[in-house]
Amino acid sequence: MTVAAALDCTGIHAGYNKVAVARDIDLSVGHGQVMTVLGPNGAGKTTLLLTIAGFLAPLKGAISLDGVPLRTGSARRMNRAGVVLVPDSRALFTELTPVQNLKLAARRSRSSVDDVLDLFPALRLRARLRAGQLSGGEQQMLAVARALIQAPKVLLIDEMSMGLAPVIVESLLPIIRQVADESNAAVVLVEQHVQLALEVADVAIVLVHGGIVASGSADEVRREEATLAQAYLSGGTDP
Ligand SMILES: Nc1ncnc2c1ncn2[C@@H]1O[C@H](COP(=O)(O)OP(=O)(O)OP(=O)(O)O)[C@@H](O)[C@H]1O
Ligand SMILES: [Mg+2]
User: From the centroid of its chain, how far is CA 50?
Assistant: First the structure.
């Protein structure tokens, strides 16, 4: 018997105003698995996440959770079904404290603020500050914590490390691994730090100009050095 993946996307075409910027995207992420989505600037990574999260309607294709096809194109519906996006902007309430930010997100959730803060002890120590006064890395932890408090089935994280020093990224990414292991959520992680992302991920896809040019286990994709180098050369950034 095959067990349905937590998240299945089949033949997804994603884009804007009927113009596809990502095409024929097939991906499956199991419970407790981390998939990293790699690729140069403009490859279509954010567009794909926005489509899975329901902010954009797919131009074609199907999305199912645990084998159940979903009606796509509504962020509210996707969120109710268990899909939570951590956007690259983080979108925190900067004037509120970390706990106030978490409580706002926790309204419909079974998880408690305390449970979530156990994963991010640094946030506990900064309870008196407003979110806007936290460091970039701490704000990112809060953005992930705010997603987790909604007990996601599918957690989509867009460029968590944007603007952060590599040493901070090195400490944040293993937390994502731990989140997947402990919460059993399927995690889709868009990341520019290719090698660090491949270390914590189980599976990976590489997008170039909206198409998948490599996919497989993180180890398999890591060995595709030539494809990776070419992907980033064509997009003008280094892996
Ligand atoms: N709102 C929009 N309307 C029309 N085209 C858009 C819109 N947003 C993005 N695009 C285009 O879609 C393509 C893919 O963009 P996307 O933001 O998904 O790339 P990305 O892989 O996330 O890049 P980055 O690594 O820079 O974040 C780009 O060519 C971009 O110009
Ligand atoms: Mg992006």
Answer: 10
